[in-house]
Amino acid sequence: MNAMATPPISHRLAEAAVALFDENGYDETTVDDIAARAGASRSTFFRHYRSKEDAIFPDHDTLLAAVDARLRASTADTAIVAVTDAVRLVLAHYVQDAEVSLRRYRLVGRVPALRDREIASVARYQRLFREFIGTWLADSPDAGLRAELMAASVVAAHNQVLRGWLRAGGTYDPSGPLDHALGYVIATFRHLERPQDGENQVVVATFDRSASPQAVMEAIQAHLQQRPV
Amino acid sequence: MNAMATPPISHRLAEAAVALFDENGYDETTVDDIAARAGASRSTFFRHYRSKEDAIFPDHDTLLAAVDARLRASTADTAIVAVTDAVRLVLAHYVQDAEVSLRRYRLVGRVPALRDREIASVARYQRLFREFIGTWLADSPDAGLRAELMAASVVAAHNQVLRGWLRAGGTYDPSGPLDHALGYVIATFRHLERPQDGENQVVVATFDRSASPQAVMEAIQAHLQQRPV
Question: Which chain B residues are closer than 8 Å to A116 by Cβ?
C-alpha cells in the first residue's frame, strides 16, 4: 500500500473499482457504484477517468510523464541504458501498490475488455521508448528498426518479470529478476550496436617457433586491440 | 484486393465498415449502417463480429490459426527461424488487401478505440510466438525471458516494416524490407542463443612453416567446427 496518509481521489476511485469488479463482477458494476464507494460524485469520477475500464489503471498518465522526465534527465552513455533505467519506475509503481496490482491482475485475466485496455497502456511506454531511442540513434543505419527492437525488448523484459511476480502473488522482491532481465537486454543490444565487432573474426598469426608464450600472447593482444571500425 | 470473385460476407462487412467510418465518421456509424451497406442483416453482422470496432479487423482469428498451423508444420532448425517465417503470413495478409489496409490505417490513427483494438490484436500474435518459443526452449536457462524477447522482437520488426509501408501509402513491395528486418532479428538472437559462441574466442594454431595455404585453411576450419557447447 501507498505510504501516504490520505490517498488522492484518483487512487481511492481505482481501489473502489478494483474491489467492486472483484466482488460483484465487471459487467455488474457501474460508474455510480464506484463513485459511491469512493465517497465521490459521478462528475468527480469523470474528471479522472473516461470509463469504468479506465478506472483500474489509475496512474498511467502520471507514470508515463515520470518515465519521460527520467529519460530526459538521463546521463547514460547509450539509449538502451537510459531506457532500461527508466522502465524501473514502472515496476516500482506496481510493487509499491502490490495489493491493488494483484487484484487487478486477477481481474484482467478474466475480463477481455480490461486486458485490451492494459495492453494498450503498455503500448504507450513502448512508443515513448521507441521515440526516445529513435531520436538518440538519429540517422545511423537501421535507426528505426533498432529503436523498435530495443523498445519492444525492454518492455518485454519488464513484462516478463512483472508477470512472474504477479503470478507468484507478489511474494518476493522482483528487483533482482528485473536487473537480470534488463542486463540480458543490454548485452543483446550491445552486440547489435556493434554488429561488425568480433563475432566472426579469426586471428591468424605467425611466430617464430622459438618465441616464448609471453611473446606470443603480447603479439596476439596487440593484434586484438586493432579493432575493426 | 482479394482475387476471389465473391468475397465472403465477413470481408464485405469489413469493407463496408471501413468505408462508412471513413466517410461518415466512426462515432456516427452504427452496426445497422454497416450491415445494410454490405447487404446483410444485423444478426449476420453479430455472427461475425462482436462490435463495430471489431469489424474493421476482419481476419485475425483466421490469420492467427494459419500462423499457428505454419508454426506447427515448421521444419526450421531454431524457434526464431520458425517464427520469423510464420510472421510473413501476417504482412502478406495486409499487402493482399492493400486498399482496406490503407483505409484502416488512416482510421486507426484517428480513433483511439480502434487503435486499442488493433494493439490488442497484435498482442495475440506475440503471445502465440512466445508460447511456441517457450515450448521449444523448454527448460533451458532463461527460457521464459528469451521467449518473451524473441517474440516481442519478431513482432516489433514486422510492425516496423508494416508501419513504414502503410505510411508510404503502400506504394512498394515490403517483402525486401521484411527480409532485412527479420534477418536482423535472427542475427541478434543467434548471438543470444549461443552467448559463449565465438565472440571472445581467439584461435591459436601452429603449422609447419612449409604448410600450404590450403592446409592452413583446412586446419583452421576443422578447429572452428569444434564449437563450444
Answer: 116-117, 119-120
Residues with Cβ within 8 Å of A13's Cβ and at least 6 positions away in sequence, in order, are A34, A35, A38, A40, A44, A45, A48, A49, A55, A58
Task: Give chain B positions within 8 Å (CB) of A156.
Answer: 148-149, 151-153
Say what the pTM is: 0.77
H helices then E strands: how many in chain B?
12, 0
pLDDT digits (tens, 9 = 90+) for A137-161: 998 889 999 999 999 999 999 999 9
- Ordered structural domains, chain A, with CATH: 1-57 (1.10.10.60), 59-193 (1.10.357.10)
**Are B144 and A153 in contact (CB < 8 Å)?**
no
Distance of CA B16 to the CA centre of its chain: 26
Tell whether ipTM is more than 0.95: no
The number of beta carbons lying within 10 Å of the beta carbon of residue B206 is 11
The DSSP code sequence of B168-183 is TTS-S-THHHHHHHHH
